Amino acid sequence: MENGAIKWGFQGKQGLDAASATNVRGYFNLLIGNINQDNSSVVVPLGHGDPSHFPSFRTTPAAEDAIVDALRSAKHNCFATTVAVLSRPGANIFLPRPGYPHYEAWCAYNHLEMRHYDLLPEKGWEVDVDAVETLADENTAAMVIINPGNPCGNVCSYEHLNKVAETARKLGILVIAGEAYDNLTFGSTPYVPMRVFGLTVPILTMGSISKRWIVPGWRLWWLVTSDPNGILQKSGVIDSITGFLNISSDPTTFIQEIPSLTCPRKLEGSMFIMVKLNLAMLEDIIDDMNFCLKLAKEESVIILPGIAVGLKNWLRVTFAIEPSLLQEGLARVKAFCQRHAKKQ
What we know:
Elements: H1 16-21, H2 24-32, E1 44-45, H3 61-73, H4 82-86, E2 92-97, H5 102-109, E3 113-120, E4 126-127, H6 129-135, E5 140-146, H7 158-171, E6 174-178, E7 203-208, E8 221-226, H8 231-234, H9 237-247, E9 261-262, E10 272-277, H10 288-299, E11 301-302, E12 304-305, E13 314-318, H11 323-339
Parallel strand pairs: 1-11, 2-3, 2-5, 5-6, 6-7
Antiparallel strand pairs: 3-4, 7-8, 9-10, 10-13, 12-13
C-alpha cells in the first residue's frame, strides 16, 4: 500500500485491447455508435454475422436437444485453440486476405507472426498460390484456408484445393481448414472438404454447428485431423493439442443493381458477399470506412467495411436477415449511393 492506495497484483494483458479493436465486433460497434438517434427508421444490419436474431432463422429443436444431452454428459466442457498450440518463438502462419479477423486476434494474443496471402477476385477468390511460396521460410508452420469462403462467398474447386495441398506439402507446412459453412453451398462448384487431401499434406479441420444450425452464439467448434501418414502424431502436434485441452478453460447478384457497388463473382456459399466499392463514382466518400459511417448515420444501415476483413475499399454484406428487411436495406443503400453519386 502506497500513500493509502492499494497496489493491486494484477493488470490487463498488453496487446489484447489492440487485437480486439480490429475485430469485426469492434468495427460493428463503431458503426452502431454512428447511427443518427434522431432518425426513426429501423436499423438494417447488413453487416452482422448472426442470423439467429430473426424468426426465419430459428434453429431446430433437434440441435437444442443435442446440446442439452452433450452438456449433461460432462464430456465436452473444453475448447481447442489451434493457434495457441502452433505458437512458438519466431513461428509464422499464413492467413487469407480478405478474411475473418478472429485469426489475427488470436495470433496477436499468442505472439505468432501472421503473414497474409491474397485471394484473387478476378479468379473467383482463389488462393494466390505463387505468392504463398514466396512468403514461406523455415519458420512457417501452417496456412489457413476458409472454404466455403467468409467473407467472399466462394467455393473452391477440387483442382484448386489440390494445388493448395501440393504447395503446402512442398513447403512442409500443415493446412488449417476452416469449414464452418460446409453445409451452406448452393452454386455450381461442388463443395470438397479439405480432408480428402490428407494423404498429400496433414490437415486440421475446424468445424462448427454455428452456421449450419444458425446458433453462432453457442460458439461450439470441433477439431478433426486428417493425417493417414501420422505426421502430426510424430511431430508432437497431437500431444500438444491434448496438453492444451488439459490446461484450457475457454469454452450475391442483388447488389449489382447499384452502379457504384459491384461483385466480381456470383455467390456460391456461406451467408456473406464481398462487394467492391467504386469511389470514382461517389462524391465526398474517402474510403470504405467513411462510406459505412455515413451510411449508418444517414440511412441507419450497417454494412461492414472491407478493411475489417483485410480488403480496403470493399464491403462485406450479409443476406442472412429477413427478406423484407434485406429489401428495405438495399433500397436505402441504393438511395444513399444515388445521393452521393458524382454529377455527370
